[in-house]
Amino acid sequence: MAGPVGGRRVTNASQSMRGSRIAFAILIGILLGCIFAVLYPHGLFSDYSNSVPHLNSRRLSKSSLQIGSTSCESTERVNMMKAELSDLSSSNDNLKKQVRDLTEKLQAAEQKNGQAEQQVVMVGEPQKAGPFGTVKGIRTNPTVVPDDTVNPRLAKILEKIAVKKELIVALANSNVKAMLEVWVASIKKAGIPNYLVVALDDGIVDFCKENDVSFYTRDPDEGIDSVAKTGGNHAVSGLKFRILREFLQLGYGVLLSDVDIVYIQNPFDHIYRDSDVESMSDGHDNMTAYGYNDVFDEPAMGWARYAHTMRIWVYNSGFFYLRPTLPAIELLDRVAARLSRPPPAWDQAVFNEELFFPSHPGYIGLHASKRTMDRYLFMNSKVLFKEVRKDANLKKLKPVIVHVNYHPDKLPRMKAVVEFYFNGKQDALQPFPDGSD
After folding, report:
1. Which residues of 228-245 are buried (b: 16+ CB within 10 A; e: fewer)?
2. Sheet holding 370-372: strands in order across?
3. Which Pfam families match (predicted)?
4. Nearest to 114 by CA among 126, 106, 103, 102
5. Distance between CA 436 and CA 30 in Å, rounded?
6. How far apart are CA 182 and CA 175, in angstroms?
7. I want to staple 283 with a disulfide (CB 3.0 to 4.6 A). Which of 219, 288, 322, 350 is the partner?
8. CA triplet 276, 278, 281: central angle to 5 degrees?
9. Alpha-carbon distance values, 77 to 3, 72, 81, 88, 231 (Å)
10. Beta-bridge mates of residue 279
């Protein structure tokens, strides 16, 4: 019993001594911590850094360099970002414009497609024929969807000038300036507001400005300009088939006019608009102007010596009205294409061949509707000088226009027509022969 009690005492004493040492060590640590806190308030190594000034200066200079470098880099970066932003803004504007243009074209294509589908339905859908004498075929083609992107500058001009989407258009260079003066004067006297001169050189531009005449100058085109500025009457006349295309694409009905024409009334009051092409005729009577059955006689054929032919005198390519339809545009394309390649051809002959030649082996004819204008209202100079001026009743008629197409002395005859129809001078037409001397 005595043994265990003594061992327990020894153990308790050792534990007590160990605890005292730990407590003493903790106390010393706390005292040292307080001393260091008082002596070194900024830390044990702070004075070392302060005691080495070159080290601090190196750090400061490096820091300043970094700050300066960062500032410089920031300025350059800002400038770069501004430039990039400007480029992106410009690119964004271009993209917006492209999207807008594509959207407009898509809408136009959808509208055109809708019209095409409607036309197919009208033309292609099987229909039951009505009673005898009541069946009528389709005569009037739908107009094209206007496309202002073709020529925005021209579109703005036409928007101001045209009346009910129609206007008179004439091409002129300085070679025909004297006739253009009479042409413009007659249009103004007739009270026609919707007319435009396509000025082919600077002389005509100056004339139009001086006389308050609406005009349009085309963008430079080497292939056209050489003819436009130096060409004669026939050469300039051939250009119209290329130039008029944009007018139709923009959705305008065009009354093409040569400048050797005197206007007495407003022609738009006398146009039917039921065909792709309405044209005045070179015919001099009802048969030649509107067509007739001409019998060809070949005696060598015996019983079959007589062959019947259909004839009509040509349409005048210096005065015709085009509705803005696909067949009318195709007509312009066909004529322009043929005139641009050899052999040289007369535009009026080509104009009529494309209008009247039917489809046959190796050739697809133009499917365009046609109307011949009243020969007394839209009068050529052969009708006037050979027939009308010699008939007391016909002299009382008031034509819409007189086209001096049959005579080379155009200017004096134009002035005489003005005197006769505007100023009432009854003998103004008498000095001239029927034909050409």
Report:
1. bbebebebbbbbbbbbbb
2. 215-216, 195-199, 166-172, 253-257, 315-322, 277-281, 370-372
3. Nucleotid_trans
4. 106
5. 137
6. 14
7. 288
8. 145
9. 90, 8, 6, 16, 61
10. 320, 372
| Tokens 């004339």, located at residue | 207
Q: Report pLDDT digits (tens) over 120-153.
A: 444 557 888 999 999 988 778 999 999 999 999 9
pLDDT below 50 — which residues of the chain? 1-13, 45-67, 69, 115-122, 232-233
* Number of neighbouring beta carbons within 10 Å of residue 254: 26
Q: If 0-12 CB within 10 Å is exposed, 13-18 middle and 19+ buried, where does residue 172 land?
A: buried
Q: Who contacts 48 (Cβ-Cβ below 8 Å, separation ≥6)?
A: none
The pLDDT of residue 111: 52
Among 414, 415, 405, smallest CA distance to 435 is for 405
Distance CA 335, CA 323 (A): 17
Rounded Cα distance between 395 and 224, Å, is 42
Kind of pairing between the strands at 315-322 and 306-311: unpaired
Q: Output b/e per residue, 100-116; b: 16+ Cβ within 10 A.
A: eeeeeeeebeeeeeeee
Q: What residues does 143 pair with on adjacent strands?
A: 325
> Is residue 374 within 8 Å of residue 397, measured between CB atoms?
no
Tell me, what's the pLDDT at 12?
46
pLDDT tens digit string along 369-401?
Answer: 999 999 999 999 999 999 999 999 999 999 999
The pLDDT assigned to 225 comes to 54
